Amino acid sequence: MAELKHIRPETANDILCKVDAITQKICDTVRKIAESRSIQEAPYAELQEHIEENQQILSSYGLSNPRLDDMCSIAKSYGFAGKLTGFGGRFAYILLPPSTQKEQIKNLSTELEAKDFSVTRTNVGCSGVKID
C-alpha cells in the first residue's frame, strides 16, 4: 500500500476510502453482536458479507496474493469468509460464527493444512484475541 500511495496516490486514496466505509459497517455489525443478549445468525451473515467485500477490494487492487485468495476461496466453499489481516500480507483470518459445528472446523482445517496453510484457532471477545 505504501508503494501504491507513492506511485498512484488517487488510487490508494480510493482504496482507503472504500476499506474505511466497509470497516465502519464491520464495526457497526460487531457492536450489534456485542449488544445482543442472544446469538443470532443474521449479524454474522452480515459480517461475513462485509469481510468478503473487503477482501475482494484488496484482491482487485493487487493488495492480496494468490495464496491468500486461495485460502479465502476454500473458506467460502465451507460458507465462511476470510480476509487478509494487513500484517505484511502474510496473515489472514476466517470468521467462524458461533453456530459453526466442530466437524466443519475440522474439515476446513484439514483442507487448509493439506494445502500447506498454518491453522491457529483463536477466539475474539471483549478482551481481544485469545489463542486456544
UniProtKB/TrEMBL annotation:
<keyword id="KW-0418">Kinase</keyword>
<dbReference type="GO" id="GO:0005829">
    <property type="term" value="C:cytosol"/>
</dbReference>
<dbReference type="GO" id="GO:0019287">
    <property type="term" value="P:isopentenyl diphosphate biosynthetic process, mevalonate pathway"/>
</dbReference>
<dbReference type="Pfam" id="PF08544">
    <property type="entry name" value="GHMP_kinases_C"/>
</dbReference>
<keyword id="KW-0460">Magnesium</keyword>
<dbReference type="InterPro" id="IPR006205">
    <property type="entry name" value="Mev_gal_kin"/>
</dbReference>
<dbReference type="GO" id="GO:0005524">
    <property type="term" value="F:ATP binding"/>
</dbReference>
<keyword id="KW-0963">Cytoplasm</keyword>
<dbReference type="GO" id="GO:0004496">
    <property type="term" value="F:mevalonate kinase activity"/>
</dbReference>
<feature type="domain" description="GHMP kinase C-terminal">
    <location>
        <begin position="44"/>
        <end position="106"/>
    </location>
</feature>
<dbReference type="InterPro" id="IPR036554">
    <property type="entry name" value="GHMP_kinase_C_sf"/>
</dbReference>
<dbReference type="InterPro" id="IPR013750">
    <property type="entry name" value="GHMP_kinase_C_dom"/>
</dbReference>
<keyword id="KW-0808">Transferase</keyword>
<protein>
    <submittedName>
        <fullName>Mevalonate kinase</fullName>
    </submittedName>
</protein>
